[in-house]
Amino acid sequence: MANGRNLLIATVSFASILLAATQCALGQSEKEIQSKLDDLLSDDIPHNCENATKWFFKNREKLKARLEEEFYKAKDSQARDAIFHVLFNTQSFVPGARFVAAVIARLPQEDKFVGNGDIFKGPSEGADRIGADGAQWEAWKFINDHFEVFEPKLKEQVAKTDSVLVLWATAWLLKKRGLLQDNVALFTPGVLAKAAANLKDDNIDYNASQAVRLFLLLGEAGLPTLRETAKSSDKQASSLAKATIDALGGNRKAFGYLGSKIYLEMTPFGPQATPPAWHKAMVELYLDRDTYP
Prior knowledge:
Layout: H1 2-26, H2 30-39, H3 48-58, H4 60-73, H5 77-88, H6 97-106, H7 135-145, H8 147-160, H9 164-176, H10 180-183, H11 189-196, H12 207-218, H13 223-229, H14 235-248, H15 252-261, H16 279-284
Helix pairs in contact: 3-5, 4-5, 5-7, 6-8, 7-8, 9-12, 11-13, 12-14, 13-14, 14-15
């Protein structure tokens, strides 16, 4: 029994030595890793989350498995978004089903719990860059990079979500990949009615812009919903719906009205859309007018 006990002690000791040696080889001690994890938490200490995120970013290839493990443990929204940022930008990280579900769940939250810029005070250049955008934006490039894994869940969300951002960005991504026409049936009349409700004057930032961009992407499929919305007693909803209908018909003044009220060029990631040369003159026609036409 004594020999067995000694063998157990030796095994445990060897494992501890091996763990310590591995951490040493990686260049980080457990104490240092834990300290940086603590700094990710929302605590009103200026720049500690940003600096810790930069540290994890530099060591992301070595610590990606640990970061994913800590992500599932974390209850703090800021810490989760910081880990999202690092893993989204870790080329060798392959998302599993649990991580896919977490990303999908994050999308409709937008900036309600972690604002754009709460973690990062501005982008830097080069390999150590830190993105200024929120996780709900960085997620879309990550989804595109791993589209085959995300595609089923993303399509499933179209019928479930109340977020017009998710609807617009999903349609945009499908369009970018040449898949929107084959999947336009996902955007049922019920889904489009929820999207059209965002055209109203409701003091919610950006939702009307996202709805208009969605209907412009969907084209004829959205016309019945837009025609119904054009009858609305809400002046903003009615005007935006009428202008979107006319814009889909190629009316330049309609594009000018829309451009004077919302940001048409926005994209979930990558280069923004470039307006045609005539667009600026059409926008100027409606800068001082609230209703269309």
